[in-house]
Write a structure and sequence with these properties.
This protein is an alpha+beta fold. The protein has a domain of 117 residues: Bira Bifunctional Protein, Domain 2 (BirA Bifunctional Protein, domain 2). It is 39% helix and 17% strand. The chain has six helices and six strands. The strands form two sheets. It has a three-stranded mixed beta sheet. The chain has a three-stranded antiparallel beta sheet with strand order 2-4-3. Helix 1 runs antiparallel to helix 4. The protein is globular. The N and C termini lie far apart (53 Å).
Length: 185
């Protein structure tokens, strides 16, 4: 019997490779002072529709459990993270640096490089309004690649958040609209 479309088996050799990748991500995240967290594989459906609207339901593995609760397999960790942080808001130290490596699920047509079940490394810094948090997350991504032996010959970093670039330029005193527009075009 074959596995379901969009899902895969991890036989010993591929499981070892996956686990080595996870080990590297955990090692680098901990070096940067991040703490690992996890959440349930299934969450109330409302947790995802609150963020993305009802149209997201068609992209989820959504179902009703035997108790009549509408649920979904997690398609991402951000809503779960917000729920977890909300429970602990009174005691939350700031900034809080958290990471996870979780299996996630999306009900999409499987295609090369895009399965219905996938693992993702997430890192978040909560409660730090300065751009240093963004810089640290970029450094974490770069160091994660370097951990596996990649160098500047193998990758480069591209930032595509126009607002972030505008804030960054402003922090360095570059506010002339024509100059900013020329840099960002």
């Amino acid at each position: 019997m074959e596995s379901l479309p969009g899902f895969r088996d991890f036989e010993p050799s591929t499981c070892a490779q996956r686990n080595a990748l996870f080990h590297g991500w955990r090692t680098v995240a901990r070096r940067f002072g991040f703490e690992e967290f996890d959440g349930p594989i299934a969450e109330p459906l409302e947790l995802f529709t609150q963020k993305s609207g009802e149209e997201i339901v068609n992209q989820l593995f959504a179902f009703e459990d035997k108790g009549g609760r509408k649920m979904a397999l997690r398609p991402e960790m951000t809503p779960s993270l917000v729920r977890i942080l909300g429970k602990n808001l009174a005691t939350l130290k700031k900034p809080t640096k958290l990471f996870n490596i979780t299996e996630q699920f999306r009900y999409e047509r499987p295609q090369k490089g895009r399965l219905r079940s996938f693992y993702q490394f997430n890192a978040d810094i909560v409660g730090e309004p300065s751009l240093s948090a963004e810089a640290e997350l970029i450094a974490l991504a770069v160091e994660s690649l370097r951990y596996f032996g990649l160098t500047e010959e193998h990758f480069y970093v591209r930032l595509s958040d126009r607002q972030l670039w505008q804030l960054w330029l402003k922090a360095f005193g570059i506010t002339d609209e024509a100059l900013v527009g020329g840099i960002l075009s």
